[in-house]
TrEMBL record:
Organism field: Thermobifida fusca TM51
UniProt keyword annotation of Coiled coil present: yes
Residue ranges constituting the C4-type zinc ribbon domain according to the UniProt record: 205-239
Domain CT398-like coiled coil hairpin: 14-193
Upper classification of the organism: Bacteria, Bacillati, Actinomycetota, Actinomycetes, Streptosporangiales
The protein, known as: C4-type zinc ribbon domain-containing protein
């Protein structure tokens, strides 16, 4: 294949632009900001789950507290009734008095037990309240962090898309300047060889595969007419002769 040396050189500009576009597209697919955002969201979900558990616990404790308070009231009322009956002097049967006395003692024990439970519930409630306040604060912080990460991600995407647009515009300008057969060969090689279809020969080395050319290969490159589209013997990419090729 033949192409003007200027077009061959221009092909290197096209390659540079395409390499840049590939890099930007890869970056878009694996943004570090995306990973940070994912981590922030995972943390927020975890905190909200913990908060939900704590709130359920608080509601359960509330219910238990109300129940214990009702029980205490009942026990107290019954004890008072019994005491009044005993003190009224209306009960004369010693057996009945004895059983009433026993019940009053039983109720007193029961009340003391219930009061212990109420105290313990109050302590647990205080702990859970503290935990909830702590989690509330952490959730607020995590929401801020998540929003920040989201902004950083959006900014990064915009910035990269901007750069991609410029590179794409640059590409279409270059493409218009190049002959079709050269372009087709380049595209085909680019597809075949990991995105690099054309490389410069610099200081005797192919910049596509990074290998040094042998003396015989360099000689062939030197002798080839300038308009001949030369290829690297090793990687088969278009190998463009430049000012510092070392020929
Ligand atoms: Zn090569």
């Amino acid at each position: 294949m033949k192409a003007e040396p200027a077009h061959q050189l221009r092909l290197l500009d096209l390659q540079e632009t395409d390499t840049e576009r590939d890099r930007l597209n890869r970056l878009l697919r694996a943004l570090p900001e995306e990973e940070q955002l994912r981590q922030c969201e995972a943390r927020l979900t975890e905190l909200r789950d913990q908060l939900a558990v704590t709130e359920t616990e608080l509601r359960d404790l509330d219910r238990e507290q109300r129940k214990v308070e009702r029980d205490i009231d009942q026990v107290r009322a019954r004890a008072e009734r019994n005491t009044q009956r005993m003190e009224s002097g209306q009960i004369s049967s010693p057996r009945e008095l004895e059983s009433l006395q026993a019940e009053i003692e039983l109720l007193a024990r029961r009340q003391s037990e219930l009061e212990d439970i109420a105290l313990e519930l109050m302590e647990r409630r205080e702990e859970a309240d503290k935990r909830r306040a702590d989690l509330d604060r952490k959730v607020t912080e995590a929401v801020e962090e998540r929003d920040d990460a989201e902004n950083r991600r959006s900014e990064a995407v915009l910035r990269i898309k901007d750069e991609l647009d410029s590179a794409t515009q640059r590409r279409s300008r270059i493409v218009k300047e190049l002959p079709e057969d050269l372009l087709n060969l380049y595209e085909r090689l680019r597809e075949q060889y990991a995105g690099i279809g054309a490389a410069a020969l610099r200081y005797g080395r192919c910049e596509g595969c990074k290998l040094q050319l042998s003396a015989a290969e360099l000689r062939e490159m030197r002798l080839a007419p300038p308009e001949e589209v030369t290829r690297c013997e090793n990687c088969r990419r278009i190998l463009v002769r430049v000012a510092d090729s070392g020929l």
